[in-house]
Amino acid sequence: MDQDIAIEVKGITKNFGGYTAIKNLSFSVTKAELFGIVGPDGAGKTTILRLLMGILLPTSGEVMVFGVSVGRYPEKVRESIGYMSQRFGLYEDLTVEENMEFYCDLYGVDRKERKRRMEELLDFSGLYPFKKRLAGHLSGGMKQKLGLTCALIHRPDILILDEPTAGVDPLSRRDFWRILYGLRNQGMTIVLSTAYLDEAERCTRIGLIYRGEMPMLDRPNNIRSSLGISMVEVVLSETSRARDILLRNEYVDMVTVYGDRLHIGLKEKEQMDSILDMLRSYRFEIKGSREVIPSLEDVFIKRIR
Amino acid sequence: MRLKGIVKKEFIHIKRDPLSLAMAFLLPAILLFIYGYAVTFDVENIETVVCDRDKSSLSRELIEGFSKSGYFTIISYTESYNDVDGYIDRGDAKAGIIIPDDFSKTIRKGGLPSVEIIIDGSNSNIATIALGYVSAIEERYTRRLYPLSKEGPLIQVKTRIWYNREMRSRNFIIPGLIAVIMAVIVALLTSLTVSKEWDRGSMEQLLSTPVKPSELVLGKLIPYFIIGFADTVFAVLMSTFLFGVPLKGDPVLLFLLSSIFLFGGLSFGILISIVAKNQTIASQIAMLTTFLPAFLLSGFIFSISNMPKILQIFTLAIPARYFVTILKGIFLKGVTIEDLLWETALLSLYGLIVFFLAVKKLKKWIG
Q1: What is the largest CA-CA distance in chain A?
Q2: pTM across the whole model
Q3: CA B191 distance to own-chain centroid
Q4: pLDDT tens digits for A204-237?
Q5: What domains can you pick out in chain A, each with its CATH number?
Q6: B262, exposed or middle or buried, with CB in 10 Å at 0-12, 13-18, 19+?
Q7: Could you tell me if A93 lies within 8 Å of chain B, comparing CB atoms?
Q8: What is the rounded CA–CA span in Å between residue A252 and residue A275?
Q9: A89 close contact with B: CB closer than 8 A
Q10: What is the ipTM of this complex?
């Protein structure tokens, strides 16, 4: 067995009643990876994470964590994993400290060690001043950090996070990512799911999930270049009208609207100037244009179209 | 360590929710108070209308016998038979006494006088009890009238022995009532614990830890067991001090057997909670599955031996039935454990089965 593999997913399928949520999925996560499971809502991200934890059991197939079967030894596997569910899973009527104490009890962290770890985690998450506060009175970002500290209390080797930054303000999100990078540098394996592609770009490797399948699995850079088209970003007014016109052009492969700008995928890079001329002839005011690396969102839209 | 952690956490939840805690103590007290006063079979002060056509000293003596008994209160005297009907039809009177013109004449002649007594049968309970009192008063009157008669009373009297007059029906009802109330309260207490974890999303987080189903069930059971036990002690104290129900048996035995019942009831609440996954549904199921069976099929009021055979078999599955027997036995008869072996065994069995069922149901979720 490969010593570097943290999680190995071997052909798992999960049926809910007659509905197949996950279809014969296989992938592996190496140690100290920051692995992103990326996809739109309802694609099956949460189901995959639950299957990794053994909270759900697959209809067929198997998940191995450090070579141990999750289905057969769920309790042993859970000792080495810290999990944070999408919804705030702690107790709002307990204080920050009490929530942490409870998770210390559940993971059997002994008295002496407990005090040290709690201090350390409170410090590192910036929750120290709020340790006596009820969890229900914390802001969204702080709740998220509390969830993380509770998931880290037993010093797991693997951290599984289900959309950890959903509904968290941008500043807290940046903070949260800084913490994740720190953990990864210490050698922790992190698997997270996200619907935000800008977050997916920060992962070492991502798997795109669509309708219970993983059509792409690679480094973010490779996924972007795999598109094989060049991408031009054009800033202009009336983006939707421009898109409709562009899609009729034979050199245009795809067009994505991002607010006041368009990403235009071209089959040949040389066509860029003639396309811009065409837009001008339609009296669009072009405020700026440049060639860009296709974003993951571009790729994603193209792949699942 | 995990078990201790869960118990500690549950206690914090309880502490931070003083309203629920107050309900846990007040609800049984209020129920016991209301039902303790409402459910009674004692009949006193039956409103009575008298039509005395004889107006003799003998007839007055008979009427006095009724009014002095304390069970009948004479609200009116009237001259005509029809008036008596009117009083009873309107519901102003529950009983009427009609003494014919020739009442004293017949007695003096040594004949058999007839006195008509009308009782409103629309409340059969009061009616049968009133009938019992009537017979008793009749008998006393006859004895006084013919004390030396060797042939015994001339008036044909059928005496019914109702409850011992000194013992009020409340004494029979309260112990059973404690059982019914505790059956409901205890299931309600725990019916919310696991469903609350689902509702607020903490269950998924909990499932990701190495916690064992048995630890979770037991950890949630222990704090509520303490509350349930305190409720039982409180209810017993209320019964003896407020309602004056004598506790003839051993209180230690009573609380010991109550604990076995509590264990089963609390486990049942947790089982509902695990299956329902929703607080509202869980508490409704808990209410429905405990109150009606405990009230109707436990032998609390309606004797099980009078039920159809199929219902009798069904009552065997109702734990409140055994608890009613235990409480009535210890309170009223002062029975010991030897007399309650069957009930104790079945209650224990029930508790264990429900506990393991709850653990098994939870295991399906945990792994």
Answers
A1: 75
A2: 0.76
A3: 24
A4: 999 988 888 888 888 988 887 776 777 888 888 8
A5: 5-224 (3.40.50.300), 230-304 (3.30.70.100)
A6: buried
A7: yes
A8: 9
A9: yes
A10: 0.79
